[in-house]
Every structure is written in structure tokens, then in C-alpha cells.
Amino acid sequence: MGFGRSEGLLVLKAVARLAAAGIAIASGAVAWAASQQGTAGHRPVRLDEWHHLYLGLALAGWAAWRRHPWLLLVAALIAVDDGLQHVRQAMGDWAYASPLHELFGAYLWPLAAVRWIVVQLDALFG
Description:
The protein is built from five helices and no strands. The protein has helices spanning about 5-35, 50-65, 70-90, 100-110, 110-125. The chain is globular, with a radius of gyration of 17 Å. The mean pLDDT is about 85.
């Protein structure tokens, strides 16, 4: 037994709502983390540096424009990953790096083009 069209649309609407809520919560979490002063010896989270939350927000905007709820869910997962990382860091666990941050550091950061893009994005936001 499969879903009918109306049931399938209900599932997609639920996915879109869940993703939108996740993005909103992640955005609030990063903003909260940035408002904290950080523990001794660690700098606070700065909003004017590139965060993968911004990638999630851009992807979410594109997914909403294209009416693609599954892509919106991917955007939410990216945003929530960054939000969790910065909340944990602001609460004193500065050694914590999110799973996406670890993947980025291992596979993408070694590429000179990626480092250049991040410098350009930091300059754009800062």
C-alpha cells in the first residue's frame, strides 16, 4: 500500500514545517551563542564569519522558491548542525566540532580554492 496524492502532500507539508522550524531554531541558537562572551581563553562566536548556517539558509531559500521540501530538509540539517556546534561551544565545550564541520575540515579545507572562498565569504560578512 502506497500513499495517495493527498497523503503524500500532507507528508511533504509536515517535512517542510519541520524543516522550517529547525532552521528557525538553529538561527536563534547561533544568534544566542554569538551573544555569549565565551569562556576564559576562547573567543566568542562571531556572526561576521562564515558559518554553515548561512549555507543552510541560502539553500532553504532556494528550496522554498523551488517548492522542494526534501531539499528544505537538507538545508535544515545543515543549519541545525551549525546551531548545535555553536551552542555547545558557547556553553564551554570549545573542543566540540559538529559532524559537518569535521567532514569539511577533512575533505574540503585542504583544497586551496575552498580556503579562498571562505576568506572571500568572511570578508563579505565581516
